Amino acid sequence: MPRLTGWPQDAPAPGRHLLLLPDGVVAEEVEVLAISRFSAARWDRPPRVPMSRRDSAAQPTPGVLRLGRLSTVTGPFGVEPAVAARLGVPGDIVSAWPVDVPRERHAALAIGGDRDGLRRAFGAQQPVREEGRVLRWLIDVARRLGGAVRTDTGAVLVPEMDAALDLTVVSDRWVEPEVVLTAARRVAPQARIDAPVSSGDRLASVAHTGRALVQRPDAGIGVADADERQRLHAEADAFDAWMVAHPPAAEGFGVLIDLGADGAVSVRAETEGELPLVLHGLDWTQGEVVAYRVTWEPPELEELEAEKPSLAHRVARGRAAQVVRSIAREVQLDVGGEVADMAGFLVDPAEL
């Protein structure tokens, strides 16, 4: 690969974000992840790779991948170990993709944790709008491919690959809770149904006791006529009775897997409003689409947003990750569809 042309060999590149990737990552992988996030993603100039050693063009030519109207990423450029050391990036980095994006910053409140290190990198003035979208994509790509991001401030962000372990199975099939429970129990026999009580169940329970369906101490306030107030109460009770006899269809359900000291894994089924961009336009996504979300719930929730979580959290996360992946694989086997990670990138079920 060509060197990082235009950079002084004794100094890092100023004023640009860099996507930094390890060995084995090809340009097509970066392209796929760009298409997964940006509808306008395309090559302005594809990278050129020599077909053989006898090719007259001895050096490959970096490509220019457009992300948006004003944003591009160019690469790959080779990174020598000495350059990587000067940049302060991990030693396994072998290629870099400089990013051109408008600089857009805005003051942001420091709420919650800083899992991706953005407050460390940018302080109170955080990237927003197009720069914010591009930067979040760079971090997600680095996490997916085992790389890093060097921001234009000089901060190096190395997102942990296991820090975003939740998966979602997206399907056009709505199945009964027992189907998902059976799939989960192939991985974790202790799995159980964990569905909230519906309003219909609550009303039926109250009706069974013989008490009034709904207590309304304030009902009829403002209505002077006693007969009219009584009529309003009777009408409301009739509606409640109808709801008991005709409960609404379930809008979702859950399965819970207790992992003891490692927390819990849940599977939540619900109709999906937002699809990964790469699934838009497919025939099977034009109707109702269901998301089966497989999520890890750690013992200490605040650790999820820590840039450097504790050893205990990382150990528990490592054990839970295998449960999440295995359950997502089994659910997809039964309901079909695709598997997406937390960044909206598709995952091959065979790799889970």
What labels describe this entry?
8 helices, seven-stranded antiparallel beta sheet, 22% strand, eight-stranded antiparallel beta sheet, globular, 352 residues, alpha+beta, single chain, 17 strands
How much beta, percentage-wise?
15-25%
Number of strand segments? 17
- Measure the end-to-end span: 32 Å
Describe the main β-sheet briefly: 8 strands, antiparallel
Low-confidence sequence ranges: 6-12, 197-217
Total separate domains: 3
Q: How would you spell out the order of helices and strands?
A: EHEEEEHEEHEHEEEHEHHEEEHEE
Which outline best applies? globular
Structural class per helix/strand content?
Answer: alpha+beta
Task: Count up the helices.
Answer: 8
In terms of quaternary structure, what is this? single chain
Mean pLDDT: 84
Helix coverage percent of residues? 25-40%
Using only C-alpha atoms, the radius of gyration works out to 27 Å
Description:
The chain has 3 domains: 17-159, no CATH class; 167-195 and 251-351; 199-245, no CATH class. Strands 1, 2, 3, 4, 5, 6, 9 and 10 form an 8-stranded antiparallel sheet that branches. By secondary structure, it is of the alpha+beta class. It is 29% helix and 22% strand.
